[in-house]
Amino acid sequence: MNIKIQSVRFDADKKLLDYVENKVGKLTQIADNITGADVILRLENDETNENKIVEIKVALPHSPELFAKKQCKTFEESVDLTTVALRRQIQKFKQKMRG
């Protein structure tokens, strides 16, 4: 799977990039035909602590793009919640395909 990571308004460190790749890569455990994932890590300029936003788009053959977006206090928490949401979407899509 090809994972593209983009950080907006900050420079992501190697540790965060590795964490994102690890978590997103684990999505292949439930769908081994994922062709790619686009990850956007964004730092919002608002005053709240929950200003870390993660958006992930996943491409599966024969399906519309699956998308999830979460906003939390840390990027790691956002990545966790986003991948959980995508897991659910992938499982629903697979069930629908089985009929």
What does this structure look like?
This protein has a four-stranded mixed beta sheet with strand order 1-2-3-4, with helices on one face. The radius of gyration is 14 Å and the shape is elongated. The protein is α+β, with helices and mostly antiparallel strands. A hairpin with a 6-residue loop joins strand 3 (about 50-60) and strand 4. The chain has helices at about 15-25, 75-99, and strands spanning about 1-10, 35-45, 50-60, 65-70. The mean pLDDT is about 95. Helix 1 runs parallel beside helix 2 (about 75-99). About 20% of the residues are buried.
- Helical amount: 25-40%
Order of helices and strands: EHEEEH
- Gyration radius over CA: 14 Å
Poorly predicted segments: none
Average pLDDT rating: 94
Give the overall silhouette: elongated
Largest sheet: 4 strands, mixed
Tally of DSSP helical segments = 2
**Strand order in space, largest sheet:** 1-2-3-4
Q: What is the strand tally? A: 4
β-strand percent reads 25-35%
**Termini gap:** 26 Å
Task: Describe this structure in a few short sentences.
This protein has about 100 residues and is α+β, with helices and mostly antiparallel strands. Helix content is about 35%, strand content about 30%. A hairpin with an 8-residue loop joins strand 2 (about 35-45) and strand 3.
